[in-house]
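Human:
Take a look at this sequence-structure pair and walk me through the tokens.
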Amino acid sequence: NGFTSGLQNPSIAVTPVMDRGLYKVVTTLNGCSDSIIINVVVDSTPALPTVGSNSPICSQFGILFLTSGDVTPGVSYKWSGPPAFTSTLQNPVLMGLSTTSSGVYTVTATVVYTAPDLVCTNFNTVTVIVDSTPIVPILTSNSPICSGNALNLTATSSAGANYSWTGPNSFSTTIQNPTINPATTAASGVYTVTATSVYTAPPLTCTSNMATIAVVVDSTPVTPNASSNSPG
């Protein structure tokens, strides 16, 4: 590769594969010279791996897809990441993650040479975000009640969550603790709620599993008609 040097012990920085081959050193003293040849092997380091993911995802339900590739033939892959993740798959898939899986994931591409014995590696990283999915809401009510009274519904989930209620008689609301007043017998039945967290950087919406509660609104008698044979 056109290399020459007058140094006794030269160095070649950032050595490309084309620097492999026979190197000859000639020593000279008082007009006399001698030489020797050494064979230098420079094996190929894998190219910088390409790396990607479908981050951000939601905890519990989101599926994380990690992808990698390398133009160097014959490479093997090894992934590492939080909290103690490792994989030798080129494109691993992770499910049921918690927010502790957020962080930097590293993929290392490796080529192993057997003659002579040498291992050459290169690596790249990708940042993964696993946002928190709200817990399943805990639901309560003041059921059973008599019709004409107020039906109070309450939901409790993760801090900052938004709520979505649906129920009998086309009932729906985004109020965390709604009240139906007055409630009729048509309000009897099963009410469902989901809790949602909305993230803006990067944009992502995470929704909990659905919670349900059964409500009973019993019929209140109509106002009685009263009469008498008074005066008597």
